[in-house]
Specification:
34% of the residues lie in helices and 8% in strands. With 138 residues, it is of the alpha+beta class. It has one domain. β1 and β2 form a beta hairpin. α2 packs across α4. The protein is globular. The two termini are 29 Å apart.
Length: 138
């Protein structure tokens, strides 16, 4: 997955000085603070924020499904019978805003697992199987 809004390196990668600071948990709403804790755990298990080529492992899906659902709904447009999420900004932003990585493509496997869980519920992909836009119903 290409990460358009990234750093100066290919595929959205950033040099160390481009990497944003991790937001203070005290400045985050409760769901985001909890998600940040689980993201920290997953990232540390994969070698940390810097220079690792290791994908972030799949885990803590219960919390991350809640996070991406809320984030997607916040960025969706209201339609008569549903919400429409265009896929922009990309769902990886929800993760990277809470725990920025030097290589944001490391989120891909985890993001895909969370999307699979969302699709078991109210999320419907507009152009399967790899489309980025979704209809979200209640």
């Amino acid at each position: 997955m290409s990460k358009g809004a990234g750093g100066s390196l290919p595929r959205g990668r950033r040099v160390r000085h481009e990497l944003p600071a991790i937001p203070a948990a005290t400045d985050l709403p409760p769901l985001e603070a909890k998600a940040q804790r689980v993201l920290r755990d997953l990232v540390e298990r994969a070698g940390g924020r810097y220079d690792s080529r290791t994908s972030i492992p799949i885990g803590h899906l219960d919390t991350l499904v809640l996070l991406l659902d809320a984030w997607g709904r916040r960025h969706a447009v209201s339609r008569p019978t549903r919400l429409y999420f265009s896929g922009q900004p990309g769902l990886w932003h929800a993760l990277d805003e809470l725990y920025p990585l030097q290589g944001p493509n490391r989120w891909d496997r985890l993001r895909q697992a969370v999307i699979s869980e969302l699709e078991k519920g109210a999320w419907r992909r507009r152009t399967p199987p790899r489309g980025i836009a979704f209809d979200i119903t209640d």
